[in-house]
């Protein structure tokens, strides 16, 4: 019932880079701003805190015969017809619809521009009821005891989060695949050896090793047996692996992590029951290093190569995938109705650049933990399974005829047939997608307010509704454990304004959404052309924006009639909405996402950040790029709500306690001059702790919490976040002040650009 209520509360958040759109291509060009939106289709609330109006009969909703947009409250309705608010076409109404619409307040689509309608589920009633959630854990045994202990804790947390009616399967992989049957009195494991050759497949189908319904156990009756099966997991010994793999080249031992073959076999195994036993299966793959055995093995030697000596860009060499194997495998997963989450717990090079497609293209997530000691894996697992999600989703964005969607960004796969249609296998309440816009012609929008820019986002999705415990129904226990599927259509139609001049445009900027679109663009550029190219793109964008703004607002000052020295307003002092942007760009250039390989950024960590950042909603991304630093006079009293990320800010504030929120990390720092009577760490019932707990509750991942006493503990991890005194290119502190000298450099670049 709780999950059902959560599903009911889901919403859709849409945010634009500019609240008022540029009036024509010239206005867009001269502004220097990106133009687009971010969409969080399954968000708990929309950006203003509203929820949709719910209704039924989504299949009866009228559609425009020209552009296929859905009927909405912005459409003009006559007795027998309606005009499409997006393209202006006049459409006829059927007599059934006229009868429905004659009663006021009877249909959601006449009450709100934000609606969520139920659609009829195809197939018999019996099939619709049989959809049980399926979860399979695939555990890497070519690992250590510590890795397996952590994985066990994570799976025990997962079992607590899974609702009644769920089915759970436990599989292991190394040089062989192990399948567990936990439905008998003692857990039984059956193994199949994986052929070592790179194009090998299993000699036997998994269904013939163990029937799928013996492998998938009902969680509510088998929880204890699953737990005891987890207790039996042991790492495969190096002796076992060597014997299986045989000696490698020149006596070098081959590994034994047959991840690729195991995944493919599992997808085929599960796929046989897709649409029958389950509507979506989730596979949790726990990986302790790179796949190095059988089909899909990855050559990790490319990480050790000396790119610098060859004059090659290491960042460029390590970002593309080395094989299409996992991208192709993601397509197999999608066909089998499987969503894959990868949990990599490793500090060795694992080539996530090749592996990431398996998770992001199947609708799953990619998690990376560098060690087992302080890993938040169990918390992340519990949190991920405890939040509502939709699956088999289709997202479609339509615009009025003056403009059109350009690029789309996010973890989905595009429809092979239709433009601007995205398929999302699994979508939770945090998953965010972005689009940028282009004008469809040179004319742009009408200066009359009678034809404003329109945007319509349609999101079709399925949710599993758990069995309601109806005490008065007196139904048999068997029918009470059945889940049912609900197919829904959520539509949000937005009417936007057009800015009449450049000042109106600049005043309507949302800097967080601008940052989101920029991050997507630089990730794309660095994947295609290397990190250096990504950095240049970002730097040049800020230079052009600054030049266009100075030009538009006429604020440039030339020194004594000289054209070689000029003072541009690089801080955007006339426009509060643009003021955060130089700091955000500076911080993004200091972020490991865009720092160089030679600065010690691990390529797997960079890929992890790319996957994380490209799915975050704008406010979370802002935190991750430019952390929030607040100060406290005591654990119960806030001193200042925001400081710049500099040592100077710490010293001048004089506050004893600082709290830094960097999205994935939370740090409480007591300054070395803090009164020794202040309790450390902050007590559990104080304001600071309440703030921390609330933040942890709202996050999509579990942030790591660190307490530091200045002067006693090593404060490096905290000081690394104080980026404003750091040089933008390279590590460490320089004689010049970082952010200040960055602005001077932008001033110089603007001068050259203006010439």
Automatic annotation (TrEMBL):
Superkingdom of origin organism: Eukaryota
Gene3D superfamilies membership: Sec23/Sec24 helical domain (1.20.120.730), von Willebrand factor, type A domain (3.40.50.410), Zn-finger domain of Sec23/24 (2.30.30.380)
Keywords associated with the record: Signal
InterPro entries, alphabetized: Sec23/24_helical_dom, Sec23/24_helical_dom_sf, Sec23/24_trunk_dom, SEC23_SEC24_subfamily, vWFA_dom_sf, Znf_Sec23_Sec24_sf
Example GO biological process: COPII-coated vesicle cargo loading
Domain Sec23/Sec24 helical: 510-621
Single GO MF annotation: zinc ion binding
Domain named Sec23/Sec24 trunk: residues: 132-384
GO terms for cellular component: COPII vesicle coat; endoplasmic reticulum exit site
UniProt signal peptide: 1-19
PANTHER family according to UniProt: PROTEIN TRANSPORT PROTEIN SEC24 (PTHR13803:SF17), SEC24-RELATED PROTEIN (PTHR13803)
Protein name, entry field: Sec23/sec24 transport family protein
Lineage: Eukaryota, Viridiplantae, Streptophyta, Embryophyta, Tracheophyta
